[in-house]
Amino acid sequence: MLDWLPEIVKISDMGGNWDSFLERIYRIFYTDIVQKRLIYKNTLVRPADENCFEDDKLKLFWHIIQKQGEKERQPDLRRMERIPWIKPITDNIDSQYIYLWREKKGHELRDHILLDDKSYHHYLIVLSVREKRNYTDYFLITAFPPEKNYLKNLLKRYKKANPGITEVRTPSTLGR
Fold first, then answer.
1. E strand residue ranges, 14-164
2. Which of 62, 100, 132, 136 has the fewest beta carbons under 10 Å from its own?
3. Dihedral sign, Cα of residue 56, residue 44, residue 162, residue 113
4. Model pTM above 0.90
5. Taking the mean position of all CA atoms in its chain, how far away is CA 162?
6. In the chain, what are the domain boundaries?
7. What distance in Å separates the CA atoms of residue 174 and residue 124, rounded to the nearest whole number?
8. Quick one: DSSP state of residue 52?
9. Which class for 175: exposed (0-12), middle (13-18), buried (19 or more C-beta within 10 A)?
């Protein structure tokens, strides 16, 4: 395991109690994202819709822990277990296992932060980028462990966004 990446939090750690698990995951999310503050490229990252709550929790939290089902979003244990990874990943963007790239989606710029250690650890964080005249704002949009096929797609997108990079694991070439 990467020494800076915490262990996942399992529902079994809470004796299988769903409510205790949900509260522990939210406490980690709120502490890391809101209280301790997420920092990316020396800039504060704010939660998207930071003032929107649902069931006494930030709406972004619900988005991050849920996966699209057939009709609606459903809680996903893999997403929930990895909530503790968000802050350490943004704190360690210079790691050889982190890929960074920017893409445009509609009228919005998005920075992608992908952890891929070529074994077990895969996690994607997506930030909305709002460039102002003298500064840039970043907003956390989502974070999740990508499935195998989507991970391959992400790595292709990384290479497309960084055409001069022949070796994928070269963080120093990313202008950081």
1. 38-40, 43-47, 53-54, 57-58, 66-68, 73-75, 98-105, 108-116, 122-131, 136-144
2. 132
3. negative
4. no
5. 20
6. 11-162
7. 17
8. -
9. exposed
